[in-house]
Amino acid sequence: MAASATTGAKASAPAQQRAADAVGGAQSIFRVLRILKYVGAAPARGVGLTDVVRDVGLTPPTAHRMLSALLQEGFLSLNPRLKTYSLGRESYILGLAAESRHGIKAIAESAVLRLAQSTGDTSFLSVRSGHEAVCVDRKTGDFPIKILTLEVGHRRPLGVGAGSLALLAFLPNDDIDRVLARYDASAAPDLPSTDMLREDIAAARKNGYALNPGRIIPDMLGVGVPVFDREQHVVAALSVAAIRSRLSGARLADVVAALQRAASELSADLAPRF
User: What is the distance of C-alpha 154 from the center of its chain?
Assistant: First the structure.
């Protein structure tokens, strides 16, 4: 029996190693994908190795190895002067392929532009990506003070910002609970607490629109509404951001009405494809 047990233990060792390798391989894939998302949300100047180490949570050797692999495969490009990384040619090609299949930006562009023109302020189109909201389009109006806190490609935790809050607040309750369970208010100094998000979600559901009452920048307000598909699932959010004095009283009601009209029209436009 002892010999048989020993043989069994030896036989199981390769299987255990394969399982460990599989776990390690999956972790590497997740890390690479986090790097791509992080670089994609970065400013135009790109990000450096130290930024990736600090914000993605990798050791310098691991970050350097993964950045080098992404650079070699064309998914990242390197600015030789600044030593910063940006998305590369292959990322752009993948984006074009995804756009052809999920072209919500092209369908919604006229609606986002009309919102900016009619309100005079900055309008945004946002979509959900896991536990984050991604800005996929932005248009500016003719009011001299422009709110440019979000650039196309920028990500925020779901619930942070008017469009992001609209994406979260109108999800099913179970989905909201799962998102909030992973929400980390300590990740950045300007993030609202989980209790604040729950209050904002409750207010959005009651009012029919999401309001960012200056959570990120005190003098800036934002208002957003969800865009539903034909199954009444949230597929996007439209939002408008402006200085505080331009999103209060009767004008806030006018902007909400414009957003809701645009969202309804966009839902109808999306119906054949989503």
Answer: 7
